[in-house]
Amino acid sequence: MTPLKSLPEPEASDVVRSTRLAFIGPFTELRVEVFGVPDMQRDIMTDGKGNFSFPLVGSIAAAGKTPHDVSDEIRQKLAVRYIRDPQVTVNFKASSNPLSVQSMSVTVDGQVNKAGSYPVVGRVTLMRAVALAGGTNEFAKLQDVVVFRDVGNQKYVGIYNLEGIRRGNYPDPEIFPNDVVVVGDSPARRRFKDVLAVVPALLSPVILLAREF
Predict the structure, then answer these.
(1) Is 11 exposed, middle or buried (0-12, 13-18, 19+ CB in 10 A)?
(2) How far is residue 3's CA from residue 211's CA, in Å, rounded to a whole number?
(3) Which end of the chain has fewer beta carbons closer than 10 Å to its terminal beta carbon, N or C?
(4) By CB neighbour count within 10 A (0-12 exposed, 13-18 middle, 19+ buried), where does 2 fall?
(5) 89 with 72: CB under 8 angstroms?
(6) With contact defined as beta carbons under 8 Å apart, do 146 and 129 qualify?
């Protein structure tokens, strides 16, 4: 294991497996509109690789791109042969589709009241993720919260102290889709008990690059 200063954020290429609200990913619902062309105002869901098809444009590889990037791409392709100076907008749609929710979720497990997967809408921090799971239960160890994250081909683990965050000792870290948060007395805690005994993560988080799990 290699100690790091902070838990890295997912890269844009990681949205093929998970997506943040700012990026388009698999099973993302979008509203695409070309001003003044009713037949080109429609709701679209990307496929499992984050792609979709649009009239006169063909296939769009949207994964890892923002809605603004996609609107520019559609505009450029329409302007080449079909529409003079097209005005294109692409926006996210709120979705209840289980595939869309699954693609933008965080899993919270361990000593919380309602373990499970929860949708990541907007910016979600560690404290908010725990709150989504009903908060910690009476057996939770606040000094022992583990966040697992895949970035590229690497696996990372961050060890946080909720009490330290509440005291303002260090910032409440952001949680991203596909993260796994484990609270309290769990196999993850026992795995890192030697690290926690030396550095309890009260004043700063403990971030590790885990080569094997």
Answers:
(1) exposed
(2) 11
(3) C
(4) exposed
(5) no
(6) no
Which residue has 């908010």 as its token pair?
Answer: 128
**Helix residue spans in the chain (DSSP H):** 67-81, 98-103, 126-132, 162-166, 187-191, 193-198
Q: What CA–CA distance (Å, rounded) separates 98 from 75? A: 30
pLDDT at 19: 44
- Which pLDDT tens digits describe the chain residue by residue (213 residues)? 555 666 677 665 554 444 444 577 777 888 999 998 988 999 998 887 889 999 999 999 988 788 889 999 999 999 988 888 899 999 887 655 555 555 567 889 889 988 887 777 678 899 999 998 889 988 888 888 999 998 888 888 999 999 999 998 988 999 988 899 999 774 555 555 555 555 555 566 666 666 544
Query: Which amino acid is residue 138, in one-letter code?
Result: E
For residue 100, the SS3 value is: helix
**Of 178, 118, 104, nearest in space to 148 by CA:** 178
Quick one: pLDDT at residue 153? 80
Q: What is the pLDDT of residue 129?
A: 92
d(CA 103, CA 53): 20
Which residues make Cβ contacts (< 8 Å) with residue 197, sequence separation at least 6?
none
- Strand-pair category, 124-125 with 206-210: unpaired
Is the distance from CB of 98 to CB of 169 less than 8 angstroms? Answer: no
What whole-number distance in Å separates Cα of residue 134 and Cα of residue 154? 30
Cα–chain center distance at 212: 23
